[in-house]
Amino acid sequence: MDIERAWDEYVATVSELETLGSIEGLLAWDQQVNLPVGGGANRARQAALISRTRHLRLTDPRLGELLEILSEAELGPVQSASVRVMNRQYRRATRVSAELVAAFTHAQAEGFQQWISARQHADFSLFAPSLKRLLELTIEQAQAIDSTRSVYDVQLDIFDPGTNTAALREMFESLHQGLLPLLDAIQGQTPIEQHGTIFSVEGQRSLNLAVVEAFGLDLSSGRLDYSEHPFTVGLGQGDVRITTRLDTHSLMAGLSATMHETGHALYEQGLPRATWQGTGLAQAASLGLHESQSRFWENYIGRSRAFMEWLGSIAPVHLGSKAPDADLLFQMANRVHAGAIRIHADEVSYNLHIIARFELELGMMSGDIEVDSLPEAWNEKYRKMLGVQPHGVTAGLLQDVHWAHGMFGYFPSYTLGNLYAASLASKLKEEMPTHMESVQKGEFSDILIWLREQIHSHGRLMEAPELMRSVVGEGYSVEHLLDHLWDRHGGLYGVQRPASD
Ligand SMILES: [Zn+2]
Question: Is 261 in the active site?
Fold first, then answer.
């Protein structure tokens, strides 16, 4: 068979896989945004059927043959990257039976419904059976994929290929040790009080939308909706959707969620979908890299002094005369206060929430922590790590949707994202020293263009650490993040990083 014909057949197959994937995404988006409660069981069947169909296509021996023919041919860089990425997916998928995939998808849909119900009734026991089932299936799946490695390592491969449990333990340890002196120094200063003004949902909606548009999200190829747990989904060319959640009592809570999801969506909109359709490469290089884009906009830009100058200038148009000024916005966004909720956390204590989840997940995987005793284990971890006691299970272990989707091993990607974002920001400072002056004027297009060139346009051509090395010269560094946090929060609280010995 000639290579050109093999390539055309391969692209047609991968293109169909991409379309099936986007239908899965659409069903999931609809479930979280529109689906009536009564439709849950039917949605679980729909999602299971699409997922089974996609799995059958992905494991079709004909795709295996095409991959073999192409692997032996001389290919260009895009073609060979495509074959590398699809080979990995094919090998991974052929080791998991279609029945197991369908069981997992069904459990995910049920898990999500039970999680909603458990949150409404503040009763973990309503979610516990689903969580146990999802854990069992995750372990079964990981062992089918690679029984020689730990379940957690196999899980990490899904989200951030190239990292492993041991490397993460070490990274989290050095980050934890680096954060403690900053937290101590801040705790020795006068606390910044929370600002109690209530802002209407309508006013906040229009302010949030203004920020989304200023950052550069193309709403003719995207949507902004509202859901219990904010998320982003790229549904293919010209269709990237984000959701957010607003809180009348906390302007920053809604804004930071919106900016976070906008960062994800800008990455999705910058992927070369039209040119690379059917290659599997028009995707984020890893979820950690995806999180770096959300964190870059949410934190590095969205909590900066320069951004607050601009936000303060437009806020009265949307919020009226009670709108906070730049000083107050900067304080509200960067006030360090250890709390129980991850998505409301300040930049300094945020990673402690991730370390807690990482350790709890490892405990669940190894069987050291039983699902039934998880509420106690959670509270104990939070007492130790953050010195707080969540008020009830909804503000505790039911706060995140990830486990309801069976996404064990995802949380470390958030910290990897923070580290990548800090490295990118330090590179941007070097290459575009005046970029914060543009931010202050509400001009973000040069920054977006830079991210498009450095990260977005490369899709999955390289693995995330390789791509980061090509941009900043290193995979990730705890030091850039610590520098950034000392710089911003040290300035706000009037504390300085002690000189290292
Ligand atoms: Zn995110």
Answer: yes
